[in-house]
Amino acid sequence: MFKEIFDNVREKCPLIHNITNYVTVNDCANVVLACGASPIMADDKDEVSDIQTICGGLNINIGTLNSRTIESMLLAGKRANELGHPVVLDPVGAGASKLRTETANQLLKEVRFTVIRGNISEIKTLALGNGTTKGVDADLADRVTKENLDEAAAFAKAFAGKMNAVVAITGAIDIVADAEKAYCIYNGRPEMSSITGTGCQLSALTAAFVTANQEQPLEAAAAAVCAMGLAGETAYARLSELDGNATYRNYIIDAIYRMNGEALEAGAKFEVR
Amino acid sequence: MFKEIFDNVREKCPLIHNITNYVTVNDCANVVLACGASPIMADDKDEVSDIQTICGGLNINIGTLNSRTIESMLLAGKRANELGHPVVLDPVGAGASKLRTETANQLLKEVRFTVIRGNISEIKTLALGNGTTKGVDADLADRVTKENLDEAAAFAKAFAGKMNAVVAITGAIDIVADAEKAYCIYNGRPEMSSITGTGCQLSALTAAFVTANQEQPLEAAAAAVCAMGLAGETAYARLSELDGNATYRNYIIDAIYRMNGEALEAGAKFEVR
Amino acid sequence: MFKEIFDNVREKCPLIHNITNYVTVNDCANVVLACGASPIMADDKDEVSDIQTICGGLNINIGTLNSRTIESMLLAGKRANELGHPVVLDPVGAGASKLRTETANQLLKEVRFTVIRGNISEIKTLALGNGTTKGVDADLADRVTKENLDEAAAFAKAFAGKMNAVVAITGAIDIVADAEKAYCIYNGRPEMSSITGTGCQLSALTAAFVTANQEQPLEAAAAAVCAMGLAGETAYARLSELDGNATYRNYIIDAIYRMNGEALEAGAKFEVR
After folding, report:
1. Smallest Cα–Cα separation from A52: which of A86, A26, A24, A8?
2. Phi, psi of A25 (to 5 degrees)
3. Residue among B40, B51, B250 minimizing CB distance to C246
């Protein structure tokens, strides 16, 4: 199944509109190109509707947000909803400032998202802000482990159901869930967290995957998460004793570029709960 | 001739002011350094005149434009004109949104450009917006090929004459033309389009080349286009089976860094029409 | 001593808030991660106080400043001062425009800095703007050499005393001084200046080092300068004949990633004047 999903990305070459932070934007553009899609970055309120109209999907990432770009995120998100385009939210740093938490919550209220992708802390912040599954949140640790995996998967499903979206919680173990089904994904390397923006890259990649596979957003998001993790493994295997996080960053994008559907199908490590 | 042009860049080390998008700005700065020039990035309206005054040339790139930076582009462009400094326009995404098309047209009306560099689609958008060579545009395909090369060269010359600028249309075959003469350039690799910003990098490089060679902007722009394409070839030859677009990006900048006038002269592949 | 200083960074993993330019921001984030600290980039006035509150230190870099971010720099700086957090200033391009010079001077007036790091030209601009050591400035050349090292060290000490901060002047020879003591540092390679943002990276690294070593800011800043220079040497030794400034950029960050306290202690080349 993941094979067909990735093949669809390379065949359909979807055009993905990104409103994203200026820290990792170049890597996001290159990873979208690496998977076979095309990126456009545009964040002015006077053009985001036009740009979204010619695109197939939208990726909203709130890292380095500001009052100017928040307005553009809302406009682009609403336009994407009107057009029936998939929209991904990366709530970078939700919980770290009032502005980020409030902006993420406002986006969730005014825009319908296909996928919400963040770490456990960000997703918990959103779930609390939306009054969901509070009991679970309170108990849930800030790290998904084998021990609390069932609990975390239940939390992801509950929040996915509440938001009517796919929820992707990434970390040592990744969970990608809709209301009914959770993929628990074991790809990836801990060293990926020493690179800035692997999460941002994954969100951009996810937008490409769900845009090329609109009838199966859960599986497309899970495939994107597996692809990123697998790229992290492949890239890690190439590193010499002198290489560090900068070379690792490049090799991960390279690995997406060289990956194909069959390699993804063969390398994906997951179970469904 | 291209040898002397590149040697001039390395000898004169021109300082190039860039108002450019936040996606590829780091690569633009590094490619300007790689060719022997120096970059300054500055986009606030309260400093662009000061910065342009201490620079030798200006590169305006409208990717990720916004209302704040559009004003700065106009101010910097006018100041460069007053000072007699070469100015390059990269109309990224002209045609993709009303804002980009109108901004590009406003820049063309209010600022005199030395070189206008874009892909065929962007340049056609500008030519139509300026009421030029409409018949040619209508017929001209969105890809320059051996079959339509004469037509494309005629279009480039006509638009160059209209704008009194050098026009560089880059793609599988590149055309660099003034009103009288068109360089048709065969350097480059198709894989370069899998990297974000090779076009942006080329515009920044072109600004460095024309600033160091002000008496021959056509040849300087053609030399920059050949240099970028040749770097794409040299870099491609280094790639292993594991390398992808991220490593390719680095190797292209590296190839500019290692290139000299003689290598450019020997590797440039072009004909004049 | 430098061993312990670097070990502290890796052990304490300080969270560093960066308000920095969009040119080199990705490299700044990756170099902060490479040394074992964590970066957050945030520049909106409505969140910088919140973000600074959860961080341990602040790095303010005025490259690509604008009216919106200048306000945020002042707010974040004042908040960091209230919290007793170390603050680093990188006055990129002070002297190149009125806006940069005035902004740097305003920051120096309204915010107390732990370290001020720039090249000799930038630091001279600040010293003149603050009315300090004018006689020395007037005579001091724009390049620190063995010949004028005593004079430059005296200038650095005088400005450090005036500002009650550590002053780091980087160039062929680096000087890191407080009012009493100047480290003259001989690490580094001239080729580092062919990469955009090695100075910006060093400022971000310095913020991490001083935040993890608050009781000895002079030594921490000197250690960061040695670490960056040593990384430049280590990375240079890896370069092939085909590599240029793009690969060199990656290898320098890699070298910080692979460096440890012992390697820094062994490789640091300095004298105290």
Report:
1. A86
2. -60, -35
3. B250
Nearest CB among A65, A195, A196 relative to C44 is that of: A65
Residue that wins the pLDDT comparison between C131 and A77: A77
Distance from CA of C41 to the nearest CA of A (A): 6
* CB proximity B190 to A under 8 Å: no
* CA-based torsion, C138, C142, C144, C148: positive or negative: negative
**How many beta carbons lie within 10 A of that of residue B164, not counting itself?**
11
CB–CB of B40 and C96 under 8 A?
yes
Candidate from A26, A194, A241 with C-beta closest to C26:
A26
Q: Are residues B253 and C242, on separate chains, in Cβ contact within 8 Å?
A: no
**Side-chain-facing half-sphere of C200: CA atoms under 13 Å:** 25
Nearest CB to C64: which of B43, B46, B234? B43
Alpha-carbon gap, residue C73 to C106, rounded angstroms: 10
| More confident position, C137 or B33 | B33
As a whole-number percent, the residues of chain C with pLDDT over 90 amount to 94
Nearby residues of B85 by Cβ (< 8 Å), 6 or more positions away: B52, B55, B56, B57, B58, B211
pLDDT at C141 over 90: no
Range of the domain at B185: 2-272
Give the DSSP letter string of B186-199. Answer: ----GGGGGSTTHH
Answering whether pTM is above 0.95, one says yes
Annotated binding site of A for ATP: 117, 170
**CATH number for position A142:** 3.40.1190.20
Where b means 16+ CB within 10 Å and e means fewer, C11-47 reads eeebbbbbbbbbbbbbbbbbbbbbbbbbbbbbbbbbb
Whether C102 has its CB under 8 Å from any CB of chain B: the answer is no
Cβ neighbours for B151, distance < 8 A, ≥ 6 positions apart: B136, B139, B140
DSSP secondary structure letter of residue C94: B
Q: Are C26 and A96 in contact (CB < 8 Å)?
A: no
pLDDT tens sequence across A4-23: 999 999 999 999 999 999 99
Name the neighbours of C, counting chains with at least 3 Cβ pairs within 8 A: A, B
**SS3 state at B118:** strand
> Nearest residue of B to residue A50 by CA position?
B97
Burial of C71 (0-12, 13-18, 19+ CB in 10 A): middle
> Does pLDDT of B134 surpass 50?
no
The pLDDT tens digits of the residues spanning A146-202 come to 999 999 999 999 999 999 999 999 999 999 999 999 999 999 999 999 999 999 999
Number of domains making up chain A? 1
Q: Do the strands B174-177 and B166-169 form a parallel or antiparallel pair, or are they unpaired?
A: antiparallel
SS3 B244: coil
DSSP state of A179: S
Residues C72-88: pLDDT tens digits? Answer: 999 999 999 999 999 99
Alpha-carbon distance B2 to nearest alpha carbon in chain A (angstroms): 31
Interface test with chain B among C26, C242, C250, by most B beta carbons within 10 Å: C242
Q: Which residues pair with B174 in a beta bridge?
A: B185
Residue in chain C closest to A96 (alpha carbons) equals C51
With contacts defined as CB-CB under 8 Å, which chain B residues touch C67?
44, 46
Q: Do C247 and B254 touch (CB under 8 A)?
A: yes
The answer for B182, left when phi > 0, alpha when psi is -120 to 50, beta otherwise, is: beta
Which of these, A270, A261, A264, A243, lies nearest to A11 by C-alpha position?
A261
The A residues from 117 to 176 touching B (CB cutoff 8 Å) are none
Give Cα B92 distance to the centre of its chain.
10
Chain A residues in contact with C33 by the CB 8 A cut-off are: 194-196, 245
Is A64 in the C-facing interface, judged by CB distances under 8 Å? yes
Residue B141: per-residue pLDDT: 67
Q: Which residues of B88-127 are buried (b: 16+ CB within 10 A; e: fewer)?
A: bbbbbbbbbbebbbebbbebbeebebbbbbbbbebbbbbb
